Prior knowledge:
Blueprint: H1 10-13, E1 19-21, H2 27-32, E2 41-44, E3 54-57, H3 58-66, H4 77-80, H5 94-104, E4 108-113, E5 116-122, H6 123-134
Parallel strand pairs: 1-2
Antiparallel strand pairs: 2-3, 4-5
Amino acid sequence: MKEIKPIVRVADVMKHSVDIVDGMTTVSDALKNMQHPETRTIIVDKRNDDDEYGVVMFRDIAKRVLAPDLSPKRINMYEIMSKPVIGVDPKMDIRYCIRLFDSFGLSRAPVIQDGTIIGLVSYTDIVLNSVAAQG
Length: 135
């Protein structure tokens, strides 16, 4: 008889804390004020209800600010963000989250519920926490 495994959902493995900044924040200030650097991700907030979230990862800062030798004090987050973000639902099965990551070349994504970011999920979170969540 085949064992029925419980479904592990994004909400079971995600990080609940994420840094969100205004798009006009400089890269330097965003990094100085980061409270969760382990996520290696900064979300750029919506300007209004009709806007979308943006995202800046550490690799974006390395490629778009440091490599071309630009000053992090003079570059605003909106200038280097990717927008709109591809978000995932907290109720999504992690197997589908992994497929989504693979299809779009993602390594992490914000978790969005009712239009609001409630966390962040990455391959690391899925691998490290899904084993624990499955018992």
